[in-house]
Design a protein that fits this description.
mainly alpha; about 90% helix
Length: about 190
């Protein structure tokens, strides 16, 4: 989910910038979107660490990335209204600290030592590398398909990644629980 979110970030940053130009509002949409996202993300970042231990990890991650994806899909619909752009982006921004906190908690709980360092490094590289890759090819993709469709598509991809991640997480959890039950029966 974090890697897909990184790759899709260009849809938000470049997508809003190009959509603003297409609508004759250069800089306005991306400024409203980044402001809404940033304010909400920072505000939520103070609450997430306090509450995250009470929330299920995979479900919180999936919901977080799913909400961000839905926000991406809604942005072209909200344009050109700057207040709506800021509000929709704020919803996505408010969701992200929960997913990041849940992912970090999951890594901390399920790994130790070298495995933990590798997991945190992989998370960082996948997200940052994905964002770099997305920004590298994103301009060409937006030029080919248009800003609105790319925003919607990158949002849809994130929702799909959240659903697949949740299903794979539940499947792994089921297998782990089944193995534990078999060990108890054998004992």
């Amino acid at each position: 989910m974090a890697g897909v979110g990184g790759i899709c970030w260009f849809g938000f940053s470049l997508g809003l910038a190009v959509l603003g130009v297409e609508l004759g509002m250069p800089g306005a949409l991306v400024a409203a979107g980044m402001s809404g996202y940033g304010i909400a993300s920072v505000a939520t970042s103070f609450l997430a660490p306090v509450v995250i231990d009470r929330l299920p990890r995979m479900e919180t991650m999936a919901l977080s990335w799913g909400v961000l994806g839905v926000a991406f899909v809604a942005l072209p619909v909200a344009a050109p209204n700057l207040v709506l752009i800021a509000v929709v982006a704020a919803v996505g921004g408010a969701a992200m600290p929960w997913g990041i906190a849940a992912l970090n908690a999951l890594i901390s709980e399920q790994t130790a030592g070298t495995e933990r360092r590798v997991a945190f490094t992989a998370e960082t590289v996948m997200h940052s590398g994905g964002a770099s890759l997305g920004l590298l090819v994103g301009g060409a993709v937006i030029g080919w398909a248009g800003a609105g469709p790319v925003l919607a598509a990158t949002g849809g991809v994130q929702v799909l990644a959240a659903a697949v991640g949740l299903l794979l997480g539940r499947r792994a959890s089921f297998r782990e629980n089944q193995g534990t039950q078999e060990e108890l029966v054998a004992a």
